[in-house]
Fold this protein.
Amino acid sequence: MAIQSINPVNGKVIEKYKEETAKTVEEKIVAGHRAWLKWRTVPFEERARLLLKAAEVLQRQKQELALLMAQEMGKPLKDGIAEIEKCASVCVYYAENGAAFLKNGKVKTDARNSFVTYQPIGVVLAVMPWNFPYWQCFRFIAPALMAGNTGLLKHASSVPGCALSIEKVLQKAGFPRGVFQTLLVGSGAVQKIIEHPLVKAVTLTGSTEAGKKVAAQAGAQIKKTVLELGGSDPYVILEDADLEKAASICAQSRLVNNGQSCIAAKRFIVVKEVAQEFIRLFKEKMSGKKIGDPLEATTELGPMSRRDLRDELHQQVLENIKKGARCILGGTIPEFKGAHAFYTPTILTGVKKGMPAYEEEMFGPVASVIVARNEKHAIEIANDTSFGLGAAIFTKDIKKGERIAAEQLQAGACFVNALVKSDPRLPFGGINQSGYGRELGVFGIREFVNIKTVWR
């Protein structure tokens, strides 16, 4: 069976790859385990040196890798370059801090000496999505390899070129053979990989349904998982918010990666006193973006990653309208020449409970505006979701904003007067249907280690 990458701009096949056999997968798992037996003994200093080399390779090849992203999933070049630079930064971060995060910690007990040590566990499988084909992977790779584990990557089948290029980056940086390997297989092969006794844990970034399957499969084997899943992030705009700033940030967050981000803002909850003015400003900010070929420097929004996903999104929009929502911007499929998987920035107002835009994740450039009676009602609506990845609050009262973010909004990351984003220095992950476990920061590097007590 062939795995192929298709250009979302025109629908043309870029390249076809032969799916790896079960025998090849077995060989790679064994190779990963053998590499781990040596890698786990390599000093932190050497692991850090190689991560810094990987950062150098990424910086050197950022134009080339951004081009590959643009071709395989439609990300505009400037955004792709920024993504590669972020990957380099996470490599540097763990190179500089990983050893300290995993330093033995003494604990005073009745023993002569007792301490906690963090030991690598072995081969970790990463199941990764197409929307940030490098960042999603490197935020796993940097801490996992720095901790002394080895990695196997099952990337999204739509970005095989990106998947193979990640392995090449690490090879060029000088990582030993087998420390990180890409598996060119379909999703049907994942369960057998999870069941392999030499695979010790799984991390997945993807849809909630995919997370449920992987969690069940890993759970049956008593294997650790970290899941970063979907989201329907609420942005709450209070009466005292700077509406111009809020509208600009909200539009930016909704359109990042053409709306194809788990932590992109999805639901915009505004108190009724300022709803009309916010909607006016928000529409202004959402419209006028240049849609086109991601290879053109002036393009602000590229295509969605696949035509079938675009069509699914459009059906969601139509279903909302059928149930009473009003489309005040977009809601159409562009008809210019070669518009294979494009969708226009869209705003739905009058969104209510029971509509897809209220209940589901709209994975594309579609914004749902919900009007609340007051601050309390707005927060209730924000928390009225099965998800819990990110959230934001907009108010000029900074202390109140921080209090709401810290104590009232129910999500893994809550921002004040800013768009939700990941940062190598901060833990990242969700609650409820958005998953569990944390990536990045000190918590991320400790997810896939044996936190071991030593007593004498």
The chain has a mean pLDDT of 96. The longest strand covers residues 114-120. The radius of gyration is 22 Å.
